[in-house]
Amino acid sequence: MSQSKWPELEQKLFLRTFNRLPVTLVRGKGAWVWDDQGRKYLDFVGGWAVNSLGHCHPVVVKALEKQAKTLIQASNQFYTIPQIELAQLLIEHSCLNRVFFCNSGAEANEGAVKLARRFGKLRLKGAYEVITAYSSFHGRTLAMTAATGQSKFQEPYIPLPDGFINVEYNNIEAIKQATTAKTCAVVLEPIQGEGGVNVPNDDYLRNVQHWCREKGILFILDEVQTGIARTGTLFAYEQYGVEPDIMTLAKGLGSGVPIGAFLAKEDVSVFSPGEHGSTFGGNPLVCAAACAVVRYIVGHNIPAQVKRVGDYFLTQLKSLQQQFDFLKHIRGRGLLIAVEFNQDIAEKLVLACLSRGLLVNKVKPNALRFMPPLIITEKEVDRAISILEDTLKEIRNPKH
Ligand SMILES: Cc1ncc(COP(=O)(O)O)c(C=O)c1O
Predict the structure, then answer these.
(1) Predicted confidence band at 143 (pLDDT cuts at 50, 70, 90)?
(2) What's the pLDDT tens digit per position in 85-109?
(3) In the chain, count of helices (H) and strands (E)?
(4) C-beta separation of 278 from 130 below 8 A
(5) In angstroms, rounded to a whole number, what is the distance separating the alpha carbons of residues 102 and 99?
(6) CA 137 to ligand 1 centroid distance, Å
(7) 101, 219, 245, 251: which is the annotated catalytic residue?
(8) What does the mean pLDDT of the chain come to?
(9) Which of 101, 126, 138, 371 is the most exposed place for a label (fewest CB within 10 A)?
(10) Residue 170 to residues 134, 154, 318: CA-CA distances in angstroms?
């Protein structure tokens, strides 16, 4: 499909970790991206649930330009202002009291688990085990591979770091059974993103929180994908009536600028100086951008917009379901949505949508996921639905 010279070059130069689609992206604006052949695509992948304000949003560009001319990097040995302002914003708008900045989701989760282990050592007689869920995804470091309850990520790297117990998601009894005197925390995604957009029962997280409080262990939410308005509230925990002891963030926080963070309640914030750190974490450049993102999202009530447009998107998808009986299941909240088919046609659909100018993600062999920028309009949703409809018709009635 592509006339581009870049894919061939990439094949020669890189370790083989990514199965890339045959498109070389060179430019983006809002919910749209362009490839090096001048073709335009509506982006419902959004940098993998990252471009919260879309591509090259003016407030992000302006913040980066200004900060790039002022101070790009300084050691965390010194105070810098953008990271303190970002900390203030996140703490003001969440139930947590203290923050640590890093560079990615995996690092945020590593830090959260280190904090939980520190807590275990100091307050729980050395408890260190962490319970996580099957079908979860927490990142690619060795410890987060052990935390991620999917054997396809774990098997190539066995033996993995000790101290992670994977149990069934959306099953409080499984957590109760796995809890022992060695347990220091439970780590869960409020909605499992990479696992296929799995939305738990309404009372699941409340029951987990209740169990954690009863046992004195930490309740940690990985909001790397669900946080920063993705599901229609600034943080997904707000919709479930819970307050985590620790929450991790990344992805949408910088709208494309790499940043991660973990936040903790005061009584859990047990690190002493030197026990954790990062060279780039909290860097002035990325924090200035993230400040602009969070101010915009809060100031323009983007969570309410996400709920409205997300609900509209769900309704339109449900009307597609009337037409296509092989579209089995639609699930999600806000602008994190998946559709599941009764056949493994996701790969085919991704390529067919691509050729019609729509980027979507295959989250499972039989399921597509949509995670567009949070600023998409109903009109853009209509465009995506119309491309999907044409694509599904083609799959149903293939041309010979
Ligand atoms: C819930 C969740 N946690 C952690 C991560 C890992 O984030 P990163 O790729 O920035 O390390 C991801 C990435 O998809 C994620 O969805």
Answers:
(1) very high
(2) 999 999 999 999 999 999 999 999 9
(3) 13, 15
(4) no
(5) 10
(6) 7
(7) 251
(8) 97
(9) 126
(10) 10, 21, 24
